[in-house]
């Protein structure tokens, strides 16, 4: 028997928007420490899948279990489950009227009752980790997109999550800033974080992904190692998609 229990279990999930089937019998398990990259054309259900993991979307059928807890079960506290899940979006979503440091300390102080001095100490360590310790006291508008996204990553990490979900974290960035954000994500991956990353940065996938998932039309069409996708993708839809992005 395998001793490892998946930390995320997505079982036969369906999601409809009206008559549109955004997720069509999706099943996916992620082991602790595993890095999964999800690729696929626009509208294929990648964001819906990611968002349903922390119940930003409800699902119509199936089950999603995070760290042993069914995220859609009424008896489970979704806020407690969400504390285990850090999420980083394409748009950085920082609080504009808070400094960088306040962005990082707000949730730990309010939701985890961490003393302010301790929250600030952790925040400074995280800003150091993402390479911008000198930006603690500025407002987000003073930062470049790449810096804002690194703050967003640090803010998610400040809650000490077990899993990090990234939804196209570099898609809104100017090309010269993509590398600095991916570098932080690679570092996080090396430290053993469990990561589910929607991205078309195949260089990143090649460097860190244990598994790549290709979605199309709400379905997981194909999955395998990054090498599999580079060397011999099987499904015609996968080949077509890869020929467009590589
Ligand atoms: P992706 O992230 O792969 O681009 P999405 O998960 O955002 O795809 O969307 C999957 C499908 O669901 C698309 O057809 C999209 O238009 C539709 N969709 C997503 N969110 C909503 C919503 N809130 N209301 C209606 N349709 C939606
Ligand atoms: Mg999306």
TrEMBL record:
PROSITE patterns reported for this sequence: ABC_TRANSPORTER_1, ABC_TRANSPORTER_2
ABC transporter domain sequence ranges: 8-242
Molecular function GO terms recorded: ABC-type amino acid transporter activity; ATP binding; ATP hydrolysis activity
Cited SUPFAM superfamilies: P-loop containing nucleoside triphosphate hydrolases
Keywords from the named record: ATP-binding, Nucleotide-binding, Transport
InterPro entries referenced in this protein's UniProt entry, alphabetically: AAA+_ATPase, ABC_ATPase_HisP-typ, ABC_transporter-like_ATP-bd, ABC_transporter-like_CS, MetN_ABC_transporter-like, P-loop_NTPase
Family under the similarity heading: Belongs to the ABC transporter superfamily.
Protein name per its UniProtKB record: Glutamine ABC transporter ATP-binding protein
């Amino acid at each position: 028997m395998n001793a490892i229990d998946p930390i995320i279990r997505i079982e036969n999930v369906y999601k409809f928007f009206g008559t549109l089937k955004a997720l069509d019998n999706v099943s996916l398990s992620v082991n602790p420490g595993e890095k999964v990259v999800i690729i696929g054309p626009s509208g294929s259900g990648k964001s819906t899948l990611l968002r349903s993991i922390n119940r930003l979307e409800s699902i119509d059928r199936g089950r999603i279990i995070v760290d042993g807890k069914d995220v859609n079960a009424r008896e489970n506290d979704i806020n407690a489950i969400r504390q285990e899940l850090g999420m980083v979006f394409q748009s950085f979503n920082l609080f504009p009227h808070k400094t960088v440091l306040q962005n990082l300390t707000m949730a730990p102080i309010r939701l985890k009752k961490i003393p302010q001095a301790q929250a600030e100490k952790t925040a400074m360590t995280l800003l150091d980790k993402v390479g911008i310790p000198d930006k603690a006291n500025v407002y987000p508008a003073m930062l470049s997109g790449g810096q804002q996204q690194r703050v967003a990553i640090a803010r998610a990490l400040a809650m000490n999550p077990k899993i990090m979900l990234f939804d196209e974290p570099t898609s809104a960035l100017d090309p010269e800033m993509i590398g600095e954000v991916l570098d932080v994500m690679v570092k996080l991956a090396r430290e053993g974080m469990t990561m589910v990353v929607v991205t078309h940065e195949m260089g990143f996938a090649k460097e860190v992904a244990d598994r790549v998932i290709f979605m199309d039309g709400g379905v997981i069409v194909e999955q395998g190692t990054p090498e599999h996708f580079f060397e011999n993708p099987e499904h015609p839809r996968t080949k077509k998609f890869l020929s467009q992005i590589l």
